[in-house]
Amino acid sequence: MKSALQTPPKTATVKKTAERKNPAILHIDTLNVHFELSGGRLLAVRDLSFMLGEGRTMGLVGESGCGKSVTAHSILRLIRPPGVIASGRIEYNGTELLSLPEQGMTAIRGREIAMIFQEPMTSLNPVLTVGYQIAEPLRIHLGMSDAQAREKAVDLLESVGIGDPARRCSAYPHELSGGMRQRVMIAMSLSTSPAVLIADEPTTALDVTIQAQILDLLLGLQRERRMSLLLITHDLGVVANIADDVAIMYAGEIVESGTVRQLFDSPLHPYTIGLFEAIPRIGKRVKRLATIPGMVPSFSERPQGCAFHPRCYNAADECLKAPIPLVPRKGHAVRCIRV
Predict the structure, then answer these.
(1) Are 55 and 229 in contact (CB under 8 A)?
(2) Of 21, 29, 298, 323, which sits 20 to 30 A from 12 (CA to CA)?
(3) 8-state DSSP, 6
(4) Nearest to 156 by CA among 119, 190, 197
(5) What's the angle, vertex CA 214, arms to CA 212 and CA 216, rounded to 5?
(6) pLDDT computed for residue 248 by the predictor
């Protein structure tokens, strides 16, 4: 029997994309983020590097706890103690964000780079109307009057598909469904027409039909406004349908990256291959779905060398000797010495 490395899985529904041609609007280089706890230092993000092309959609994929949200919060410098951005560079349109004074970062945060947070019920203020919360960044960043900001808030709610937007502006978050709250979050993030939108698990806790509507809405708005979209998710199906590029994270590192076409047609890292093999296939009956053995290591027990080594079917002693670099392989990049 051939190993999975010899016969990488194929998928039938992958968004067709061109090779990277757009210049990078967001460039992250060797980012390291750790948390100083009483039990010691936990490294949450390690030597992380990727580029988001102008006008492109990139999927950042990985299991819960792998560092995706920490990466997103680092871009906006929202990491709070005991978290520390220890080293690295984050450049937006040539501006290095980590060394930018807080006043300059405040001008970019929400205005140039906006974020849809993971859970709208906890991200929206329960004691303020949704109209007030959408209007707030318009007043702060664009200097609109209260009347102008409210009028724009109504327009934004209409643009994200909320019926009777004037009435909904006066509603409180608890009076809206989960799908509506997520649309409100999208309206808030788009209110200042940002160049980069970070969507952190935007369909969490929504049913499948609402998930599809939210993703279609995001993709349509991204194309209409020519935004760059960083989509954080654990769902490879979502990435296949709407992303141009993809980066696979494991234990705080990117283990493989490239265009969606490259990774879905020819995955190289054992972890990426394991994720694809675990996807149910329509029309293919199996007694048991494939699984990746073992557990994701905690940040306090991260192995030396390759973090995936304890779960890898193709591991060797040399995998533990030193950190494995992310290097070009067959048109994309992979962190594995056995490829």
Answers:
(1) no
(2) 21
(3) T
(4) 190
(5) 65
(6) 97
| Phi-psi map region of 42: left, alpha, beta (phi>0 left; psi -120 to 50 alpha) | beta
DSSP characters over 122-146 = HHS-TTS-HHHHHHHHHHHHH---H
The model carries a pTM of: 0.88
Angle subtended at Cα 260 by Cα 72 and Cα 215, rounded to the nearest 5 degrees:
60
Residue 193 tokens, joined: 């027409």
CA 60 vs. chain centroid, Å, equals: 4
- Three-state DSSP class for residue 333: strand
Rounded CA-CA distance 32/334 in Å is 19
> Tokens 């952190």 identify what position?
200
Q: How far apart are CA 239 and CA 260, in angstroms?
A: 8
Which run of H or of E encompasses 107? helix 102-108
Give the Cα separation of 42 and 46 in Å (integer).
10
Ranges in the chain, pLDDT < 70 = 1-21
What DSSP state is assigned to residue 109?
B
DSSP class of residue 323 equals P
260 token code pair:
């969606």
- The closest alpha carbon to 186, from 175, 173, 178, 197, belongs to 197
Q: Using one digit for the tens of pLDDT, what is the confidence trace for 25-36? A: 999 999 999 999
**Torsion angle in degrees (nearest 10) through CA of 306, 309, 310, 311:** 120
pLDDT score at 11: 40
What does the alpha-carbon distance between residue 20 and residue 245 come to, in Å, rounded to a whole number?
8
Treating both helix axes as pointing N-terminal to C-terminal, what angle do 178-190 and 208-225 enclose, rounded to 10 degrees? Answer: 10
Cis geometry, peptide bond prior to residue 120 (ω within 30 degrees of 0) = no
* pLDDT value of position 333: 95
| Interacting residues of 232 by C-beta distance below 8 A, sequence separation 6+ | 60, 68, 69, 71, 72, 198, 199, 200, 201
Q: What angle do CA 74, 172, 106 make, to 5 degrees?
A: 30
pLDDT in tens, 233-259: 988 988 998 999 999 999 999 999 999
Model pLDDT, residue 279: 82
* CB within 8 Å of 151: residues ≥ 6 apart: none
* pLDDT of the residue at 6: 37
